[in-house]
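Posting for a labmate who doesn't have an account.
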Amino acid sequence: MNQINRTMDSLHLKNVLTLCLLLFLNSCFTYVKIPESKLEPEERNYRSDLFEIDKKYLIRTDRDIELKLKVTTLDEARIGGHLFQQGSGLKDPNRPPFFIPYENMFMVKKYKFRPLITIGVGAVVLTGIGIYQVNNMNINLGW
């Protein structure tokens, strides 16, 4: 019976470690909203100087459609790039760029590396594993 409990504990720990590793890797890169202070005060007036070529953006249009776009071309009136699928990279790299006019953009978020979030998640995960291991230690002091 003791062997079964040890096996279950090790399986539980493996599942926890796998989940923690996935959380750690997912927290490295997140989407950050473009600050409202850089936009025109009266309306959301996105411009070409707010975007960078070869960067990923999450764009919500005024029709409530979300698009993940890697920017390849910038224009005074629109932004162009390749669409991304959820978690699997470029949709079709051989397609011509997809263009969105600036006036159709409702919200834009930039894909960015967030080191503080990554360090924080790593610290929490390691602390949790340490507490789990300390609670399951079998210390025989011979008393």
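Reply:
Got it, the structure tokens are right above this. The first helix runs from residue 2 to 27.
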